[in-house]
Amino acid sequence: MTTVLPRRLPLLVPAAVGVGFLVLPLLALLLRADWPDLATHLRAPVVGQSLRLSALTTSVTMVVVWLVGTPLAWLLARSDHPLTSWARALITVPLVLPPVVGGVALLMTWGRRGVLGGWLDQTFGITVPFTTVAVVMAEIFVALPFYVIAVEGAMRGLDRRYDEIAATLGAGPVRTFLRVAVPLTLPGVAAGSALAWARALGEFGATITFAGSFPGRTQTAPLGVYAALEQDPEAALALSLVMLLLSVLVLGLLRSRWLR
Questions:
Q1: Mean pLDDT of 66-84
Q2: Mean of pLDDT values over 88-101
Q3: Given this model, what pLDDT does residue 5 score?
Q4: Is-contact 166 181, C-beta < 8 A?
Q5: For the chain, is the Cβ count within 10 Å smaller at the N or the C terminus?
Q6: What is the pLDDT of residue 3?
Q7: Among 228, 251, 248, which Cα is nearest to 238's?
Q8: pTM summary value
Q9: pLDDT value at position 219?
Q10: Which of 55-69, 97-111, 223-237 has the lowest mean pLDDT?
């Protein structure tokens, strides 16, 4: 033990710098918080409204992500087509795309002058941008790739002999997917869900570009923090603490059960 530590010192120093860079800002939040009056700050209107909206939109987002992301991950995991790699690359573009650019892309698609939004507006009188639906769409746009990548990795590692055994027992592709693939890859599904939910909860750039920041309608928790920083910094700090607590709590619970 005494000989191993000095040999690892060149690695421990940069590792400690990395940990400090990540942890110190979180500690600063805790140290700067007005703990005696925290309950008062949490009763500020911006805190309750934005948290309720975030809870609603991230819940809807996760349902949509599960419904479309799980079959997509399964198809990618089991496809040997040459175009699959291109499809995978296309799906992961939102991971590296600046969020504001994602919001502009959504506007160009669903805005009143967008490719599909113009048709919706002229034909049915439906306007998507700057609504709660737009918030959900922005969150799906940024969160779905995280889920698909995590779940596809888990499903790709599933032995293909399970597929063959299910087929010999008379199970079709859909039944194999629902009864074999999903149950056996639940840890991967949970990991992908945690990543996607965290990304949806923290989404800012695409949301403010595509949905705006209207209290009670499109102002989610991150937008609430940004808005409160100028008018009520203590409320912004209290809301930041709630988001930090929620993130740590959910990820901690998932890790203890699924992400070992």
A1: 93
A2: 91
A3: 64
A4: no
A5: N
A6: 62
A7: 228
A8: 0.88
A9: 95
A10: 223-237
Q: What value does the mean pLDDT of the chain take?
A: 89
- pLDDT tens, 140-159? 999 999 999 999 999 999 88
Distance from C-alpha of 145 to C-alpha of 168, rounded to nearest angstrom: 33
Contact 147, 69 (CB under 8 A): yes
Residues whose CB falls within 8 Å of the CB of residue 72, separated by 6 or more in sequence, listed in order = 91, 148
As given in the structure block, the two tokens for residue 20 are 């400090």
By the 8 A CB rule, do 208 and 106 touch?
no
Distance of alpha carbon 64 from alpha carbon 137, whole angstroms: 10
User: What is the SS3 string spanning the chain?
Assistant: CCCHHHHHHHHHHHHHHHHHHHHHHHHHHHHHCCHHHHHHHHCCHHHHHHHHHHHHHHHHHHHHHHHHHHHHHHHHHHCCCCCHHHHHHHHCHHHHCCHHHHHHHHHHHHCCCCCCHHHHHHHHCCCCCCCHHHHHHHHHHHHHHHHHHHHHHHHHCCCCHHHHHHHHCCCCHHHHHHHHHHHHCHHHHHHHHHHHHHHHHHCCHHHHHHCCCCCCCCCCHHHHHHHHHHHCHHHHHHHHHHHHHHHHHHHHHHHHHCCC
Structure tokens that stand for 190 in this block: 């949970």
